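SEQUENCE-TO-STRUCTURE ENTRY
===========================

Subject: a protein chain together with a token-level encoding of how that chain folds.

Sequence line: the amino acid chain in single-letter code, read from start to end.

Question of interest: how does this chain fold, as expressed in backbone structure tokens?
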Amino acid sequence: MPRTSTNPEKTKAFFAHKSACIDPGAIIGSESRIWHYCHISNKAHIGNGTVLGQNVYVGPGVEIGSNVHIQNNVSVYQGVILEDHVFCGPSVVFTNSLTPRSEFIRKDNHCFVKTVIRRGATLGANCTIVCGVEIGQYAIVGAGAVVTKNVPDFAVVIGVPAQLQGWACRCGARLPLTLDPYSDESAACSVCQRNFIKTGYMIRDT
């Protein structure tokens, strides 16, 4: 059924399935859709037009941008930031501690390691994002990959641990650019015709 945000300043409706649990203090933007068995924690902030599939958990204070798509069975823990237009495939795994111990409780904010997924990035099904990394804008992380270090903008990474395999356009098509870290190159996307310039491992569209 449609609901309004728990933030009194936001009055436009979003949709939440009756089985979803939305804690007081959560902020959810207009036209977002929250599906079966989701749990949105206190002070979480979800932008406009975002879709959370079945059984998604959003931790306290988590920031999720607008037009983000999170597929089934994903837990977005405290310390994770998803910018606008991020796509998370089914069962993506986030972490927020590099040295977790059951014996020692670490629930304070300063104990959690920040992880940032930049605008437009795609995280494939069942990939694992070890906390403390930054996934660059419009990067693609392949299904089942384990990301242990930062991923550049527009990069395509796969494997365990994830390794750079190529480059992708904003639209997702592969770009004909090399992996040479010392080359300066340019190329156009074969699908949408956007132009890109590569300097080492830095890619920008023009």
In short: The chain has one domain: 2-171. Residues 21 and 39 are 5 Å apart (CA to CA).
